Amino acid sequence: MSALDVWLSRSIPMCLLLQSLVLMALCFPPASMCPKGCSCLRTDAHLHLHGLNVTCSRSRLKEIPRDLPAETVLLRLDHNHISAIPERAFAGLRLLRELNLSGNALETLGEGAFAGLEGALQLLDLSHNRISSVHKDAFSRLNARIVVEDNPWHCDCALQQALGGMAAHNHEATSTRVLCRSSELRDQDGQPYMAVDADLCNLAKRTTDYAMLVTMFGWFAMVISYVVYYVRQNQEDARRHLEYLKSLPSKPKRPDDPEDITTVV
Ligand SMILES: *[C@@H]1O[C@H](CO)[C@@H](O)[C@H](O)[C@H]1NC(C)=O
Ligand SMILES: *[C@@H]1O[C@H](CO)[C@@H](O)[C@H](O)[C@H]1NC(C)=O
Q1: Atom 1 in ligand 2: which residue has the minimum CA distance?
Q2: How many domains does the chain have?
Q3: What is the 3-state secondary structure (H, E, C) of 53-68?
């Protein structure tokens, strides 16, 4: 056997093996694929975080990837163009510990935006977005520290309820960082939320009560004026009727009136 024969006999099976491996990799992707625009790494064992570190920062994402691996423990979606969080968008990520949504275009947070993250989530970064309003239950049952800086918050009843629904230590930490871009109370614009010591929910209730009162008063005034008008009109009619009656020539009584006859009888 020549040296060439030996080389060929060894390299051909090797080539075939490599080729089949490549084909297998192409045809059978691993069970948890990494979403487009993201990188997925196993977390270091020494971090006590067992799962995937998924980084999708600065990937021009317009929405949250749908195919996030279930083993994700760290998820960075910062500096994208995400403008909304669909209901239950993260519901499959039971192990998620940190979620970074900083530097996106979020405007509002719905009731179920973070549903499913109640158990594990410890850190939620929502800073540098355009969030002005949140559903009153958006943060309920979350135990995470929530970063809220640099959002144009509208301080209203729903926000008060959302912050009030958080665990006490988080409530304090989060509330101090909410700056009211606008507020139910006009003179509170630009104030930190914590400085607004009014009960914004009762305020709203009082406003509706007041509106109700004004409306009722309006109706009442209309009814009264109608009644007055009606009575006046009737008086006028009655007076005219009387005058008309008076103006009629009075009938002279005749002795042969049946009534008189009966009285005589
Ligand atoms: C996660 O991955 C990113 C980049 O892919 C890296 O910068 C970061 O340090 C990683 N974090 C951890 C906790 O492994
Ligand atoms: C989220 O990402 C931003 C931008 O990369 C970073 O500055 C920030 O520290 C991260 N947030 C947390 C809580 O780690």
Answers
A1: 100
A2: 2
A3: EEECCCCCCCCCCCCC
